[in-house]
Write a structure and sequence with these properties.
By secondary structure, the chain is mostly beta strands. It folds into 4 domains: 6-129 and 509-533, Immunoglobulin-like (Sandwich), CATH 2.60.40.1180; 143-217, no CATH class; 224-506, Golgi alpha-mannosidase II, domain 4 (Beta-galactosidase, Chain A, domain 5), CATH 2.70.98.30; 543-661, Immunoglobulin-like (Sandwich), CATH 2.60.40.1360. Helix content is 13%, strand content 34%. It is built from 10 helices and 35 strands. Strands 8, 9, 10, 11, 12, 17, 20, 23 and 24 form a 9-stranded antiparallel beta sheet that branches. It has a 9-stranded antiparallel beta sheet with strand order 13-14-15-16-27-22-21-18-19, with helices on one face. The radius of gyration is 29 Å and the shape is globular.
Length: 662
């Protein structure tokens, strides 16, 4: 991460926006609790400015979500253009999080395109639509609006015999449709005519239509066998007759008439069978006297049994608009998931909310999600090593010794910092995480990730208490996201894009919000610096890891090559240090050791006695350490050429850079 004080950046930005840094800032930017969909400023302001900071050294396109109250909003870019936005209701399970202190009921979604190492401000204002009579339609598809029409309007029920006596009767909506009349057109409404009877008829028709619509949307509860999808022998996935899907320019998520997710398809035709399943493991209970009696706890995952307990679920249609399309899944009372496709973005996002976990039965529980596919991964899967190199894993195996499996579930779990994936000869399925989690692949074509744990007994490993945390008298609620990528197994382009997305998901843009009550839209448009970029895009494969002040005209700079051997023909990347930053001219660069505590030419390299050298690619020769191709680090040493530096695959270099302002 680039080391910059974001409060200082935006305090400076708020002054710079006024074109006079000497004046006190008129904008106070605040951080919000976006993981709870909570933000005091946006909830209580009719108009506000958001500043979005991208700390990656390449252009980023990201979905931005701002919690607000229900209403109509407009979002403006720095050039004054009104950009596409969408108002989406916040799921009830999120609004009900025990620790959440917010009145926000909706979120504004829009897509932000950000330059490398830059900030960009957006102006958002609430608009008031013209008020009409109580029976005016807010939206023909907004059925919730009609559910309380009678509560918001005084309606006198007219005598049904009035029509027989020659009195004017409003033509019902279904009659109007037959005659191709738009009943939602203001031109057919005469405000001088009393239409209480017509209102009652219209409400009745809408309610009947809503009932029919809800019956269509209400999807049956799926049982374990339905969700399992994959048979034991052979590995076959049941096919469903799809008639519904979420879709954007890159991905299509197929949903059966029963509400079950069935397939995942890319625009190039790449397709897999796909489903999702939520389940939990009951925690083991023991006296901790011997390992076989160890309780599951804070330091040990030890389920009571070898099978998780699958949870019933139901699926419902979510909001669908120009920015985001959603499919929502409710599982029992304490699990909720939303699948999202954003306009123009090439991943499927799933957001999950788990908790409070019910332990009223005196059984601790450990909740997981399983992504089920038809990939034949042969018991092999990959997890990242502390956010860097992908490490090959094999079910019930270790590369260095013969393993006796004592714990078939926990013994196959591995830490995930950023990513876990499986692949076969044709396809690769990756799950990117927004935090460190545990994961595995216990069955063919399956990726399993631990989401939340609540246990009632200490594991005797030093904490001295059970993993039973509470807030406001209730168990904790966890909310997080995964991003799912489907690609061709051998595609170098897809591989490179996935690696970039790992960094973008882990280092998402920082969003700050300021009340703009004193700034009209026109005032904001007159401000000179509503966006600014400090850097140019770095070459593909290079990540700007650190930028830190190191003196009046010096910077500490770290660059990382995030490529792995095999990602492309030549994984060594060249970078011109003088071409990174705008407005600066680099005079000289001196390389240091990684921690910047010693100049690199002052290091004393130790020579170690070793039995064997490092392998060129450990994953390809898993379990065959004596037969792997050895790496010769000495032959692979590369040298810089002045300000033109070179980075090998997975290498990080640190420099102290002296510069002048242009």
């Amino acid at each position: 991460m680039i080391i910059i004080s974001y409060n200082r950046v935006f305090a400076f930005s708020s002054k710079y926006l006024q074109n006079d840094p000497a004046k006190p800032s008129q904008l106070s930017f605040d951080r919000c609790r976006f993981n709870e969909s909570s933000c005091y400023t946006s909830e209580h302001s009719e108009q506000f400015i958001i500043a979005v900071y991208n700390h990656l050294a390449w252009e980023v396109t990201e979905a931005i979500r701002i919690p607000v109250m229900e209403g109509n909003y407009e979002v403006y870019a720095p050039n004054g253009d009104k950009i596409t936005s969408q108002l989406v209701d916040i799921p009830v399970v999120v609004q009900s999080i025990p620790t959440r202190k917010s009145g926000a009921t909706h979120e504004i979604f829009f897509i932000a395109k950000l330059h490398p190492v830059s900030y960009k401000t957006f102006y958002i204002r609430k608009t008031n639509r013209n008020k009409r009579s109580a029976y005016d339609v807010k939206n023909p598809n907004d059925y919730e609006y009609w559910s309380d029409v009678k509560e918001r309007a005084v309606i006198d029920i007219a005598n049904l015999d009035e029509a027989k006596h020659g009195k004017t009767v409003f033509t019902p909506i279904y009659e109007s449709r037959r005659n191709n009349i738009n009943v939602f057109d203001d031109s057919i409404i005469d405000d001088d005519v009393d239409r209480t009877k017509e209102i009652d008829q219209l409400v009745q028709i809408i309610q009947e239509h809503k009932k029919k619509k809800l019956n269509q949307v209400k999807l049956r509860t799926a049982i374990d066998d339905d969700m399992k999808m994959l048979g034991d022998d052979p590995m076959v996935v049941n096919s469903y007759s799809d008639n519904s899907y979420l879709e954007n320019e890159h991905i299509k998520l197929h949903v059966s008439p029963n509400g079950e997710i069935t397939r995942l398809t890319r625009k190039d035709g790449t397709e897999i069978q796909f489903a999702v399943q939520f389940s939990y493991y009951p925690g083991a209970l023991g006296n901790n006297a011997v390992p076989t009696n160890r309780s599951s706890g804070a330091y040990i995952f030890r389920p009571n049994g070898t099978e998780s307990i699958s949870l019933k679920f139901n699926t419902s249609e979510g909001p669908s608009g120009p920015v985001v399309k959603e499919l929502r899944i409710n599982v029992a009372e304490n699990v909720h998931s939303t699948f999202r496709l954003y306009d123009g973005l090439n991943f499927l996002e799933t957001e999950w909310v788990v908790g409070p976990i019910d332990v009223s039965d005196d059984i601790g529980k450990e909740f997981v999600v399983k992504y089920l596919t038809d990939l034949a991964n042969n018991g092999e899967f990959y997890t990242d090593s502390n956010g860097r190199q992908a490490m090959k894993r094999k079910l019930n195996m270790r590369p260095q010794w013969d393993l006796t499996v004592e714990e078939p579930i926990a013994g196959n779990y591995y830490p995930i910092t950023n990513k876990i994936y499986i692949n076969d000869e044709k396809h690769k399925f990756a799950v990117l995480t927004d935090r460190a989690q545990g994961g595995t692949s216990l069955s063919e074509g399956e990726v399993e990730i631990m989401l939340h744990r609540r246990l009632l007994h200490d594991d005797a490993f030093g904490v001295g208490e059970a993993l039973n945390e509470e807030a406001n008298g209730k168990g904790l609620v966890v909310r997080g996201r995964h991003r799912l990528f489907l690609s061709e197994a051998e595609s170098k382009v897809d591989c490179m894009e996935e690696k970039k997305q790992v960094l973008q998901f882990h280092l998402q843009p920082i969003v700050l919000i300021a009340d703009a009550t004193k700034f009209s839209l026109q005032d904001w448009l007159q401000l000179p610096s509503k966006a600014f970029s400090w850097a140019n895009s770095l070459p593909k494969g290079v990540h700007l890891l650190t930028v830190e002040p190191w003196g009046k005209k010096s910077l500490l700079l770290r660059l990382e090559n995030y490529l792995e051997i095999g990602d492309q023909e030549n994984t060594t990347v060249e970078v011109n240090l003088d071409a990174i930053f705008k407005g600066l001219t680099v005079k000289r660069a001196s390389e240091t050791m990684l921690a910047a505590n010693l100049w690199v030419d002052e290091k004393r390299k130790w020579s170690w006695n070793k039995e064997n050298g490092f392998s060129v690619n450990f994953n390809e020769e898993y379990g065959e350490l004596n037969n792997v191709e050895k790496s010769n680090d000495e032959d692979e040493d590369i040298h810089d050429d002045g300000l033109l530096i070179r980075l090998k695959a997975k290498q990080i270099k640190t420099y102290v850079v002296d510069f002048n302002y242009n």
